[in-house]
Amino acid sequence: MGFATFEGNQFSDRVKLFFTDKSLVPPYRYLKRVPFRTIAKFTGIQLLALGVIYGITWSPAAISFPVFILLLVPLRNSVLPRVFTKEQLELQDSDQ
To answer: Alpha helices of 18-75 — where are they, by DSSP H?
Structure first.
């Protein structure tokens, strides 16, 4: 896993929000337009996917690792739009 690139990306920033005092939260663009509960749900889904994929690498089913990576595409394109609005997904998935 690329921990060196983990720091400073939006996923790590959203994970840190769970542990940061509300008065110390940086002014991220998506925080102004997406409710925190929605951000928490989106981040939770991403953490669950990360846990499943990481867990697969330690199991006898590790050979199927690429299949699970491939399944992230339909998860993002088909499942998540049913849970979140298009704007919420774009704000939380963007580079900003």
So the answer is: 29-33, 36-57, 65-74
